[in-house]
Amino acid sequence: MRTLVISCGAPAVKKYRIFNASKHLLKDEVQIFDVNAEIDNLSEARQTDIKRIADKMGMDDLPAFLSFWIQDQEPFDQIWTNDHREDVVIMCNYLQKRDGSRLIADVDDLFTQIPRYNQSTLAWGMRRKQAYRDLLEMAENTVVSTPRLQEEFGGTVCPNFIVPEEWEGLEISPNRREGGKFSEDVVICCPAGTGRAGDYLEMEVPLMEAIEEGAKLWCIGWMPDWVQRNELVPGKHVVYSNWADINDYTQALTWGAPDIIMSPMQHNEFNKAKSNLKWLEAGAVGAVFVGERWGEYERTVEDKVDGFLCDGLEEWTDTLKTLVRREDLRRTVAARGTKSVIDDWTWDSVASSWKDGVNADSGKTSTSASPRQTSGEVSTQEGLLSP
Question: What is the pLDDT of residues 35-44, one digit of tens each?
């Protein structure tokens, strides 16, 4: 019996989460179904052929990509999904009836409270909100990435995690930069995508001042409108790259070898439910992390110890400028961040939560929110940001 992981294709990090969890837990053949890729791979003639089959089945609006399960007759023991399209609901319902498959729904965003400043995410969420609710109703188990999501949807908190062997190519250490860094400048990475672009609207001043200090901005999946307004030179001041798929995302981030990974957030419920994944990614590639003093970052990152937390433009500006100037500070805090991630946020640390979530009786929840407990004895590192 096989496991099917369904994703809509764009959010590589979400596929990384459930794909790796299913591989570790189930130890059987895991097949990832990238909806967007399936659509692209179908010829027009094949889409017409599948539409004819769909019509015979009484499903006139069935999209062409569902040819996957129409053709495939091997049974699936488990279905994992974080996609919430109407057609995915149809697909999961079909496989549940055909194979008796267990459906596990993964929730990694508070889709019920999407902020209006993120227009692309808002449009996505409004179209699919009911489909996601249908999937949650159908699911035998629900897993969520943060305690705030558990408050909203129930289920079991199964934290995000890093699989170190997936981040191969460069040693997981700040000292790896002597290897293949694409720029000698201090690279500030903004791995946000259009769904988080609204949180960067007010970052113009902090980032422009950091660039004036000699930093280079690396945008993944988005480009702020103020880049053109400030006449930033591509390649010199700013670098853009598209989102990478699950098979390439970790390699893309390690290739870029960012010195700083940042994650600003507006203070709202949607962001309070976001996970600490960007901090985990920073630890995996040996970059120093700078995030918002909000939500999971505030709960899991030890400020000025294994990352930096900021609130307000003045603090963001001072922190970024200081980190651009001080390589010693970047390396020291980045090394601590890497150690925290490797010690507490790999599969071995979160496996028990995931096993509880997948094997729990329907409707049963677990409150284990994080594998990490702060000691209360860590130095606050007063004066760490002083020049």
Answer: 655 555 556 6
pLDDT tens digit sequence for 165-175: 777 644 444 44
Rounded CA-CA distance 193/191 in Å is 6
> Tens of pLDDT along 133-168?
889 999 999 999 999 999 999 999 999 998 887 776
User: pTM, whole model, 2 decimals?
Assistant: 0.82
> Helices marked H in 311-367 — which ranges?
313-325, 327-344, 347-359
Q: Could you give the dihedral angle defined by the CA atoms of residues 217, 220, 222 and 225, in that order, rounded to the nearest 10 degrees? A: 10
List 281's β-bridge partners, or say none: none
Domain map of the chain by residue range?
Answer: 2-139, 164-344
**Taking a C-beta distance cutoff of 8 angstroms, is the pair 333, 288 a contact?**
yes
| CATH fold group of domain 164-344 | Rossmann fold (3.40.50)
Residue 215: name the closest of 321, 317, 319 by CA: 321
DSSP letter at 198? G
